[in-house]
Design goal:
Radius of gyration: 32 Å
Number of helices: 7
Largest sheet: 6 strands, antiparallel, barrel
Structural class: alpha+beta
């Protein structure tokens, strides 16, 4: 074998060995966030105008009051008894203020009806202050709504697509106040894991020590770690954070099974293990059919023609099979064994609950 093909083969083998580890690894920026760097929720109360008769009804008193108050602030005196709000809807405006947002930049807002308006399509949001939890105004929203739905109809019929009483305004809020955060000259940073885990924190500390030097990272607990800014990066904290967050760590996770009985959805992690257990499953089918029959009276009789429902119920139960699941089998073995006995997703939910009750399931069972 010549030198070049041999080198290609060696690189190919190395790539094959490294691929599973790389596929399981995740960047630190996807696993943890810097303490204090977070989003902030904003909200406000406003009015949407310009609706084509699809606004709040006259019985929605807070809409009438809001409209009258706005007109009076504009110097227009109106009689509340004469105000009709068919083209106006009262709404709650919500938005998320990202970290490091500066005054003058814009953010998206969501507008939701709080009255009995049938649709917000075609409406325009009037200037609405958006407050934070501390009561201060951080942004002001205004603009035309993008609803992406329609709703038309009368008293006997109605046509509707999507959700017509909620809309968005892309870039509809102008930031007026900034959330102060000192970031430039800090000597240390605290990272908090999105999912606290001691093993993940330990691996994160090892990865940081291997990249920037031992002792630079000190775990505080299972969910946070303190990272000192190296001397080489003093005054260049942004560059340090960029280099740190691109390091890859293999996160650990709990063995967990999440089931949703309403939809029949089952999600299982790869670390789910069970002890030796025998599972017996019998298919139980309940078929209920109903058909209408007409009861016709005899000729010249005074009886009435009636529709009588006829209901038929058939219950069948298939032969059960006993499947033995060996100790320590993987989630793939569990799925294949249960599928072999014809278990449906809803059957699997009941089976997992029974295995958990028997003490043979070594995983957390979460039922939504």
């Amino acid at each position: 074998m010549t030198g070049l093909p041999r080198k290609i083969m060696i690189f190919g083998l190395l790539a094959a060995l490294l691929l599973p580890t790389s596929a399981l690894a995740a960047r630190i920026k996807d696993l943890a966030t810097i303490e204090g760097v977070r989003d902030n929720q904003l909200y406000g109360y406003g009015l949407v105008i310009g609706l084509n008769g699809s606004g709040d009804s006259a019985g929605t008193q807070f809409t009438v009051q809001s409209l009258v108050n706005m007109m009076e602030r504009l110097g227009v005196t109106v009689d509340r008894a004469q105000v009709k709000v068919n083209n106006v809807a009262a709404v709650i405006v919500t938005a998320v203020l990202p970290p490091f947002s500066r005054a003058g930049s814009t953010i998206d807002v969501q507008v939701s009806s709080v009255g009995d308006a049938s649709t917000l399509a075609g409406g325009t949001l009037l200037m609405t202050p958006l407050n934070g939890p501390d009561g201060n105004v951080y942004a002001v929203a205004q603009g035309a709504l993008v609803v992406g739905s329609l709703a038309f109809g009368g008293k006997s019929a109605k046509v509707q697509t999507n959700h017509p009483t909620v809309g968005r305004i892309p870039g509809g809020a102008l930031i007026e106040r900034e959330v102060a955060y000192e970031f430039g000259d800090r000597e240390s940073l605290v990272y908090r894991l999105k999912n606290a885990d001691f093993t993940t924190i330990s691996r994160m500390s090892e990865a940081l020590g291997g990249r920037f030097g031992r002792g630079i990272a000190k775990p505080i607990d299972g969910g946070s770690i303190r990272v000192s800014v190296p001397e080489d990066f003093r005054g260049r904290t942004v560059e340090f954070v960029a280099a740190l967050e691109n390091l890859e760590v293999i996160p650990d996770q709990l063995a967990r099974i999440v089931v949703n009985e309403k939809t029949g959805t089952i999600v299982m992690g790869e670390d789910v293990r069970i002890s030796t257990v025998a599972v017996s499953h019998g298919n139980l089918n309940l078929v209920i059919s109903e058909a209408d029959q007409v009861s016709q009276p005899n000729p010249l009789s005074q009886g009435e023609t009636k529709v009588v429902p006829r209901t038929t119920i058939n219950v069948t139960e298939g032969d059960g099979e006993m499947v033995v699941l060996e100790k320590g089998v993987s989630i793939g073995d569990v799925a294949r064994s249960l599928n072999a006995i014809g278990a449906t997703p809803r059957d699997l939910i009941a089976i997992f609950q029974a295995i958990k009750a028997a003490g043979a399931l070594h995983a957390e069972l979460v039922i939504l």
